[in-house]
Write a structure and sequence with these properties.
The chain has helices at residues 38-46, 65-68, 71-76, 87-117, 133-136, 225-239, 252-265, 279-288, 297-302, 321-327, 348-355, 374-379, 410-418, 434-446, and strands at 3-8, 17-21, 26-29, 57-59, 82-86, 139-142, 148-150, 153-159, 167-175, 178-184, 207-211, 243-246, 274-276, 315-317, 335-338, 362-365, 384-387, 390-393, 397-400, 426-430, 452-453, 460-462. By secondary structure, it is an alpha/beta fold. The strands form 4 sheets. Strands 6-5-4-3-2-1-22 form a 7-stranded mixed beta sheet.
């Protein structure tokens, strides 16, 4: 008997966490943080609907916080098994979790100030920086396309094409007299994205658990992304404004830097200063340079003539708070990339406070924005937005570039799934808002895949 219980990212796009149980083994697929309204997230992330100590193995699909961010809490509460991931994910995990711990500690200080005003008892952060080393000690890094064993089962990672180190996982179970293969995609990437390789097909598995983030939408042509970015930059510069980009430190920052590098070389944008105001993004970029085995052919060809695909003149990586504050005093066109990508925390908040009230400036949204986040409110062009409890008028220009999304769109998902059409017995759609999952499910059924299931949070299935 193999049982699947969906304990996260069912009906929404954050907090990925799926439990696989056999007669003698429990495997957790991802353990991410749920992100949304501040008042909802703490309790939802604090507790698990299972005993962490009973889980034998944890598999991580990639190093985004909505897939790894609650691992320290899992370990604190008793998990002692191996944590399996790719080699690049293993390198990225430490810096991502350290940054998350900083955010946890900072957020809880803010929450406790509010609780003190209401004479409520203080609460503790989900975890702190001291909780990260015990996680790192459990890591088991694996190369792509090489099987590894887990208590009688075996698994293999294949390229997911989402971010550096991202992987689909195929687990091979021996269940009585049969062999059952289950594939979990984590987040699936798009073909022809810059820097990393395209998603590898999986055609030999029986059960599929796949994301559906953009199950009802199509991205614009990735080949046009450089031209559109150049247009946004040139229009902003012509107004004398600044370009503010809330960006994820991992992958999105590196993609934008690589695209800016190409545009500079082609003389399609002016040579204005570019600031990466994120210590995490700076550290992640350094790790990118250590993993050329993850690069696609285009980047590897560039490396034959240039030392750094992510570096160019007038590019600055800021680390200190003082350097960050100085950016707001600059009175000329500049580009600022700062985290977090959904504008829920980090240095981007201070840049938004100082810049969204100026119609000369542009805020460029380049990634998925979950419901109720500040980034989503800016994307939807709310006339007023709350930051640190204060209300600010949104007068700057707002541009949205879905082309930069590292998620497969509707057609990408269908094309990838249909490669294994003859084998899939059941397809579970997760990591999507209801309308996205429903739209994708309908399309798959029309394409001949009959067993398509959209699980609700807490649903269990035997396969």
């Amino acid at each position: 008997m193999i049982k699947i219980t969906f304990t996260g990212a069912a009906g929404n796009v954050t907090g990925s966490r799926h439990l696989i149980e056999t007669d003698n083994h429990k495997i957790l697929l991802d353990c991410g943080l749920f992100q949304g309204r501040r008042k909802d997230t703490y309790e939802r992330n604090l507790s698990f609907p299972f005993d962490p100590a009973s889980v034998n193995s944890l598999i991580l699909s990639h190093a985004h916080i909505d897939h790894i961010g609650n691992v320290p809490n899992l370990v604190k509460k008793g998990f002692k098994g191996d944590i399996h991931c790719t080699l690049a994910t293993a390198d990225l995990l430490n810096i991502m979790l350290m940054d998350s711990a900083n955010i946890q500690e900072s957020d809880i200080r803010f929450v406790n100030k509010i609780r003190a005003k209401h004479h409520e008892l203080p609460v503790e952060p989900l975890y702190t920086k001291q909780d990260i080393p015990p996680v790192v000690q459990l890591l088991q890094g694996h190369s792509y396309n090489r099987y590894f064993n887990m208590n009688g089962s075996r698994a293999v990672f294949k390229e997911a094409g989402h971010i550096m180190g991202s992987a689909t996982t195929t687990i091979e179970f021996k269940d009585n007299n049969r062999i059952l293969k289950l594939c979990y995609t984590g987040d699936l990437g798009r073909p022809n994205l810059p820097i990393i390789r395209d998603p590898a097909p999986v055609t030999d598995s029986d059960i599929l658990i796949i994301e559906s983030t953009y199950g009802n939408r199509l991205h614009r042509d990735i080949q046009q992304v450089a031209e559109r970015l150049a247009a946004v930059i040139n229009e902003t510069v012509s107004r004398g404004g600044k370009l503010i980009i809330p960006t994820f430190a991992l992958e999105r920052t590196q993609e934008i830097l690589y695209t800016l590098h190409l545009l500079r070389n082609q003389h399609k944008i002016p040579d204005i200063p570019v600031y990466v105001d994120s210590p995490l993004a700076t550290n992640a970029t350094e790790i990118f340079r250590l993993h050329p085995e993850c690069f696609d052919d285009e980047v590897n060809q560039m490396l034959q003539t240039e030392n750094d695909p992510f570096g160019f003149s007038h590019l600055h990586f800021t680390r200190s708070v003082e350097e960050s504050k100085m950016l707001n005093a600059i009175d000329q066109p500049i580009i600022i990339l700062a985290g977090s990508g959904m504008a829920e925390s980090g240095r981007i908040l201070h840049h938004l406070i100082n810049n969204i009230g100026n119609p000369l400036n542009t805020v460029l949204i380049v990634g998925w924005q979950s419901e109720n986040t500040l980034g989503r409110k800016i994307q939807d062009k709310y006339p007023q937005v709350p930051i640190f409890g204060e209300i600010y008028n949104l007068k700057s220009q707002v541009e949205v570039m879905g082309e930069f999304s590292a998620h497969a769109d509707r057609d990408d998902l269908i094309n990838w799934i249909m490669q294994g059409k003859e084998k899939w017995q059941k397809v579970f759609l997760v990591h999507g808002e209801p309308e996205s999952s429903s739209s994708l499910a309908e399309a798959l059924r029309k394409n001949g895949i009959k067993e398509v299931v959209i699980p609700k949070l807490g649903d269990s299935f035997e396969v």
